[in-house]
TrEMBL record:
<feature type="compositionally biased region" description="Polar residues">
    <location>
        <begin position="78"/>
        <end position="88"/>
    </location>
</feature>
<feature type="compositionally biased region" description="Basic and acidic residues">
    <location>
        <begin position="150"/>
        <end position="183"/>
    </location>
</feature>
<feature type="compositionally biased region" description="Basic and acidic residues">
    <location>
        <begin position="36"/>
        <end position="53"/>
    </location>
</feature>
<dbReference type="InterPro" id="IPR036629">
    <property type="entry name" value="YjbJ_sf"/>
</dbReference>
<feature type="compositionally biased region" description="Low complexity">
    <location>
        <begin position="62"/>
        <end position="71"/>
    </location>
</feature>
<dbReference type="Pfam" id="PF05532">
    <property type="entry name" value="CsbD"/>
</dbReference>
<dbReference type="InterPro" id="IPR008462">
    <property type="entry name" value="CsbD"/>
</dbReference>
<feature type="compositionally biased region" description="Polar residues">
    <location>
        <begin position="102"/>
        <end position="119"/>
    </location>
</feature>
<feature type="region of interest" description="Disordered">
    <location>
        <begin position="27"/>
        <end position="183"/>
    </location>
</feature>
<protein>
    <recommendedName>
        <fullName>CsbD-like domain-containing protein</fullName>
    </recommendedName>
</protein>
<comment type="similarity">
    <text>Belongs to the UPF0337 (CsbD) family.</text>
</comment>
<feature type="domain" description="CsbD-like">
    <location>
        <begin position="77"/>
        <end position="125"/>
    </location>
</feature>
Length: 183
């Protein structure tokens, strides 16, 4: 659990706290100590809230802001691909409505190209986000060991920005999956 109010929510810390809470609750159950059991359950609940907070991200047009304070701009292919899908779907619908097969086929093709373009941008953002998170984590640890406060802040921001990139892609994929389930 993050006791320091300036510390961003941590997925790893939530896992540690959840496991600790589960052990504490189990020991309380085995020994009949309801206080330990209750404390363990509270710790597990708090860990779940921490986990949920660490996963939070706000998707804004063209980018993502994460709960860790990271900000990322979407790869241009994501934005352009989404636009091509929208225009392609509109062309396809209008072509179908007025009976123009050429317009309908052109729209279908533009929609498919937009899907491929968006996927390419998502893959780029996902890979870049993972690399930035890893580099930020490692660099922050080294900077922390050497006492380089400015370096540590730089790497912490790099990690947070990488997390925002990943969360943005995850948000888009989840939204798309939900839309497909509704169809």
């Amino acid at each position: 659990m993050a006791d320091d109010k300036n510390q961003a929510p941590s997925t790893l810390q939530s896992y540690v706290d959840s496991a600790t809470g589960a052990v504490q609750s189990a020991i309380g159950s085995l020994t009949g100590n309801t206080g330990d059991k209750a404390k363990g359950e509270v710790r597990k609940d708090h860990a779940q809230a921490e986990h949920d907070a660490s996963q939070a991200a706000l998707k804004v047009p063209g980018g993502t802001v994460s709960s860790s304070g990271g900000v990322s701009k979407d790869d241009p292919n994501r934005t352009q691909g989404s636009w091509n899908q929208t225009v392609g779907s509109a062309k396809e619908a209008v072509g179908g409505l007025i009976g123009n097969e050429s317009l309908k086929n052109s729209g279908r093709q533009q929609n498919l190209e937009g899907q491929q373009q968006e996927a390419k941008g998502q893959l780029s953002d996902l890979g870049s986000g993972m690399a930035n998170r890893a580099q930020g984590t490692l660099g922050g640890a080294v900077a922390g060991l050497t006492g380089d406060k400015a370096g540590q802040e730089h790497y912490d921001q790099m990690r947070a920005d990488g997390k925002a990139q990943q969360r943005g892609v995850e948000h888009d994929l989840q939204k798309k999956a939900e839309a497909e389930r509704k169809e």
